[in-house]
Amino acid sequence: MLRYQILPVTPFQQNCSLVWCDATHKAALIDPGGEIDRLIAAAESRGLQLAQLWLTHAHIDHAGGAGELAERLGLPIVGPHPGDQFWIDGLPQQSAMFGFPPARAFVPTRWLADGDTVTLGEETLTVRHCPGHTPGHVVFHSAGAQRAFVGDVLFAGSIGRTDFPGGSHPQLIDSIVQRLWPMGDETVFIPGHGPESSFGRERRSNPYVQGT
């Protein structure tokens, strides 16, 4: 069984997710944007072995802690899609601009593409490339758990911003309709900020994607 705990980090209250395989206690952090010691302590308190870092995209509040965590614990950085390399290269500037602790640029251990999979212990999740918020944004979907970790593509009652470099509103809507909705109305998604929701609820009530 795939399990997870949401850990809001940074002044932006970004939802870093600690995810793990219940059978093996192998764990990953999705979008470790900061507060590294707190994230490590959360894994240790559950007796989990951190094995990977997964990134949906490379904005500072999602990726700011990845380089240091990878070096400190010897962990691979998995994702995002290569379209976000320019955001990764700019992490030091992003951290200074927003008053975050110094963040380091890196090259992911493994880039991700649409249709790839990531494995954690006995659990496998499917990767969908969902550009629009950033060019290289990806989403992690567990069909068995009916959960999707969607970063800043979709929120409860809203959608991701598209006014950053490389953003595209039409592309974002297409990503939501073509990549997320087929996962099923019952699928619960964990957004990059704010509360969880379901795709069905957003299709019914989210003014930005209602009726799509």
TrEMBL record:
A GO molecular function held by the record: metal ion binding
Segments forming domain Metallo-beta-lactamase: 13-193
Cofactor(s) required for function per UniProt: Zn(2+)
Disordered: region residues: 192-212
Xref: SMART domains: Lactamase_B
Record keywords: Hydrolase, Metal-binding, Zinc
A Pfam family recorded for this sequence: Lactamase_B
PANTHER family (alphabetical): HYDROXYACYLGLUTATHIONE HYDROLASE GLOC (PTHR46233:SF3)
The protein's name: Metallo-beta-lactamase domain-containing protein
Organism, as annotated: Pseudacidovorax intermedius
